[in-house]
Amino acid sequence: MRPFMRAVVLDDVGDSSTLRPRMLPVPEPPRGWVRVQVRAAGVQGSDLYPLRERADGGRVPFVPGIEAVGVVETSASERFGAGEQVAVVLGGTRRTFGGGYAQYMVVPDSAVTAFRSGLPWSVLGAVPETLQTAYGSLSVGIGLQAGQSLLIRGGTSALGYVATALAVDRGATVLATTRRADRLGDLARRGVHVPLVDNGKVAEQVRSMMPDGVDAALELVGTGTLRDTLDATRMQGTVCITRMLSGQRAVEGFRPVDYLPRGVRLTAYNGAAPDLPAAVLQRHLDMIADGRIDRGPVMTYPLDQASRAHDDIEHGRVFGKAVLIVDHDPDRVTARTESSSYDRTACEGDGR
């Protein structure tokens, strides 16, 4: 008799209510793939997109979740063996096979990175995709060097926190924005050299301190603030747009010659697991473990409350990263689901 597992399935486009718990057969890994016992799965803003539109081929129903951490249970790959701790980042393949909102997932070994850590699964689950995106944005999208200045537009998002840690570790001077003045201290505690309140005119604030503008900028809010971010960047500087936290994803009537400031480069980043070297992941986890960097705020939810996590992200109730905890004991899952709670008051805001 084929074993079954608990998973969360997106039945159709709509809203978070279309995410429903279900029992599914445990998948078998083909050659070159591994089956991962999922212990935690990060919830991304990009996980919301399939709820709104038939993107990436539009196949429904399917199991969402573009990142997860866990243990290799069964391997049909020469690269990984059973029992290894691994991180999975699916990137653009998230709709071609089942994702991380499940007790088990099968993935190609190219989407898997091994690590060793004693950190809790709730902490580990917040790391892979965010770290990969931050590292790729700074390395591929910008090419950030020591001694340069970097503006992060959307500094109190989970991605903003990780990008700050990486940039500071590289020796860059970091400016970062938040829309709330009461979060300036939080930015400073996490290593931001110049915290800024985003009043819509960040370029004016930046150029009052740096008349030539910053060397580089990471745009996480979206296209609504992109032009102002470009205006804050010096000639021959680079702006990389990576996230659209505001939900605004297009520039209406985009005409490059009129839109882009003279000599400022605009790039975009959207990568996958191969962009995150294993050594970078291991170093980041080790730095969290020994306190050299802050792990960042994490809000956890039982797997069966994936729809609640999505709703909280969409309505600005998540501060930092949302993570689904995948329990493999049905009795414990029921108890934790019934008693699950978190401080909504402390988590108001939209990460910007």
TrEMBL record:
Keywords of this entry: NADP, Oxidoreductase
NADP recorded as keyword: yes
Top-level taxon in the UniProt lineage: Bacteria
InterPro entries attached to this UniProt entry: ADH-like_N, ER, GroES-like_sf, NAD(P)-bd_dom_sf
Any one GO MF annotation of this record: NADPH binding
Enoyl reductase (ER) domain boundaries: 14-324
Gene3D superfamilies: Medium-chain alcohol dehydrogenases, catalytic domain
NADP listed as a keyword: yes
PANTHER family attached to this UniProt entry: QUINONE OXIDOREDUCTASE PIG3, QUINONE OXIDOREDUCTASE PIG3-RELATED
Name of the molecule in the record: NADPH:quinone reductase
